[in-house]
Design brief:
By secondary structure, the chain is α/β, with parallel strands linked by helices. 42% of the residues lie in helices and 18% in strands.
């Protein structure tokens, strides 16, 4: 088995996304650079676990696992990391599909042994068929997608975005796994930043580490109708502020908010200016986009302020776990899990 073999981890939690899960797995199977395996990690949902195990019982290279940790995306990813046999571990959202060369572009980034992570570009698939006129591209991170302001091409970054990312296995040996107590937990408040915290922790453990985003490694991510509304936009921005406060408390505001400073001082003012210009030119949604940017910043700042107070009082914490590598399954176990 090569150190460049890629295991793909897809974390799932609800039967409501059944067709999306099947599409995600199919997109991995269709890669121009074949994955070593696809691991479906089910987050404390016995019915979904059983259904997926039946669905993929006869499928080579697909394993269905139960989240071995507490409920939430971070523990699900850690379960996948521990079970994976590849030297590179890629993560794909359960409501996304990867383009054919997704893994090929990831793999090419690891030619330099200093590269510890490679992320890609995530494009939205709007449930309504088109972007809401008021929704600014600068805030596409709200719906889990690549946002306007990230540099194009293959570039070095502070952190990759978790729904479309890959890491060397040795990155987790150096830094531990994803922190639990931060990030997504089923349908609860849409927190995030677990990949940001991990990436900062990784570069502290390995100062020579290089983290890249290659915008040719593309996935397409479904945005449900409920997330096309301003109420969700505001809720997600507030949750991001809460999450950023936890990260800043852990790693320090200098590193924890390094990228955000450029984003808020350069990218967002330019977005407001574009929106106002479009409004003057009577283009649809211009004033709405400018207003949404301002509202998003203020809402995230409010979440950050409250999150900072909670973190100082010890009311909000998260913990880093070391990844214990699971033993490889025996041949008969592989047949049962596939």
């Amino acid at each position: 088995m090569s150190e460049h073999d890629i295991s793909v981890v897809v974390c799932v939690y609800t039967e409501d996304r059944w067709e999306d899960i099947l599409a995600a797995v199919s997109s991995v199977a269709a890669q121009s650079l074949p994955a070593l395996e696809t691991l479906l990690v089910v987050d404390h949902n016995a019915a979904l676990l059983e259904r997926l195990a039946r669905e993929y019982k006869e499928t080579d290279g697909v394993r269905v696992l139960a989240n071995a940790g507490p409920r939430g995306l971070s523990a699900g990813r850690n379960t996948g990391i521990a079970a994976a046999r590849g030297g590179i571990i890629a993560f794909l959202d359960d409501d996304a599909v990867a383009e054919r060369d997704w893994l090929r572009y990831f793999a090419s980034g690891y030619a330099d042994p200093r590269v510890m992570a490679v992320g890609g570009r995530t494009m939205p698939i709007w449930a309504s068929g088109r972007r809401p006129a008021w929704f600014p591209e600068e805030f596409d991170w709200v719906v889990g997608c690549t946002y306007r302001g990230l540099p194009p091409g293959r570039v070095q970054v502070r952190n990759v975005l978790g729904g479309n990312a890959s890491f060397r296995r040795t990155a987790f040996d150096a830094a531990g796994g994803f922190a639990t107590g931060i990030g997504r937990d089923g349908d609860k408040r849409p927190l995030g930043c677990e990949e940001t915290e991990l990436c900062i922790r990784l570069t502290r453990a390995r100062p020579d580490a290089i983290l890249l985003i290659d915008d040719r490694a593309v996935i397409h991510h479904r945005v449900p109708e409920a997330r096309e509304h301003f109420a969700y936009f505001r809720t997600r921005a507030y949750a991001e502020g809460l999450s950023k406060a936890l990260v800043a408390r852990s790693v320090g505001a200098d590193k924890g908010l390094e990228s955000e400073r450029r984003y808020t001082t350069r990218v967002l003012p330019a977005g407001v200016a574009r929106g106002l210009r479009d409004a003057v030119l009577a283009r649809p949604g211009g004033a709405g986009r400018a207003g949404a940017i301002v509202a998003g910043v203020l809402t995230a700042a409010g979440g950050y302020a409250l999150g900072s107070i909670r973190a100082r009082r010890g009311g909000a914490t998260f913990s880093v776990v070391e990844i214990e590598v699971a033993p490889p399954p025996a041949a008969d176990d592989e047949e049962a899990a596939a």
